[in-house]
Every structure is written in structure tokens, then in C-alpha cells.
Amino acid sequence: MINKYIYTAKIVPESAMKACFQIAERRQSSAKIRRFFVTSKLLKKFLFQLLTENIYLIRFICQSYHSDEYHPS
Q1: Structure pTM?
Q2: Sign of CA dihedral 42, 21, 28, 62
Q3: Which residues of 26-57 are buried (b: 16+ CB within 10 A; e: fewer)?
Q4: CA distance 47 to 54
Q5: Which of 3, 14, 37, 51 could disulfide-pair with 20, CB 3.0 to 4.6 Å?
Q6: What digits encode the pLDDT tens for the residues 53-71?
Q7: What is the C-alpha separation between 55 and 59, in angstroms, rounded?
Q8: pLDDT beyond 70 at 7
Q9: Angstrom distance (rounded) from CA 10 to CA 28
């Protein structure tokens, strides 16, 4: 689920903040954590860290999405 939002955030920067809010709310995080996500500098740092830690998983998901599994002919 998180990787779906990371992939979306990579393509459309505006969706990054929305994704972070959704992740924070789904985990029932405190308002303090939600405020942390809003700060744009910290948001970029957070997304970069998630991308670098999960780059192989993201590639696998993207390759799987573009395979025939999801798009049968």
C-alpha cells in the first residue's frame, strides 16, 4: 500500500502530501506526526528515504504492474 503511494508521489508531486496524510491517518497517528508530514522540507527527506530504502521493491511492483499478469490480452 505504501509503495503505491510512493510511486504516485514520484509521478505527481502534489499527491505526495495527500499520500502522507492518508498513511498517517490510517495508522491513527497523532497530530504531531501529521504536522511533521506537512513540512515540505521534511516531506522531501521522508519520501527520499522511503524511495531509497524500497527502490528494489518499487521496481518489482512497477515491473509486475506492466507485465501481462495485470493486463491480460
Answers
A1: 0.29
A2: negative
A3: eeeeeeeeeeebeeeeebeeebeebeeeeeee
A4: 10
A5: 37
A6: 777 777 777 777 666 555 5
A7: 6
A8: no
A9: 24
